[in-house]
Amino acid sequence: MGQNWVETETAGCDLGDVRLNRRLGARLVALGERPGKSLPKAFQHWSNTKAAYRFLSNGNVSEDKILEGHFTASALRIQTTDGHCAVLSIRYATMTVRPTIGKQRKYHHQNIQIIRAEECDPPVDRAPSSGS
């Protein structure tokens, strides 16, 4: 997977420092090469994993700032389409529910997957579509 998509998606992203923007691109490339993997598996080496955690704990880095570039790139893609285009904001999370102490041998933990989708910028004549 090339780096072209990373440059497109992060062009509108400003973390306040050119080095942070460059590191974001490097992190996204690594995650894009191993989708669905945990950070240690995606970065494959402890030093890279530790660097990713340091990057994410930086005060200038936030979910909103990271997604800003993606939203800008999405808006540009929408402007090039004819008519209205539906854009969904999708959030995904996994939550592990463990049995109470003393019941862990009898009952296994459960992984709950939560997916939430919401339409961004719906037409003015109707409410946004959403679901979970």
* Name of the CATH class of the largest domain: Mainly Alpha
The CATH topology of the largest domain turns out to be Serum Albumin, Chain A, Domain 1
Q: How many domains comprise the coordinates? A: 2
Q: What percent strand?
A: 15-25%
Q: Helix share of residues? A: 40-55%
Morphology:
flat
Overall pLDDT: 83
* DSSP summary: helix tally: 5
CATH architectural category of the largest domain: Orthogonal Bundle
The tally of beta strands, per DSSP, is 3
pLDDT < 50 stretches: none
| Head-to-tail CA distance between termini | 30 Å
Structural class, from helix and strand content?
A: alpha+beta
Please describe the biggest sheet, giving its number of strands, its sense, and whether it closes into a barrel: 3 strands, antiparallel
Protein name: Transposase DNA-binding
Keywords: DNA-binding
Organism: Celeribacter baekdonensis
Pfam family, one: Tnp_DNA_bind
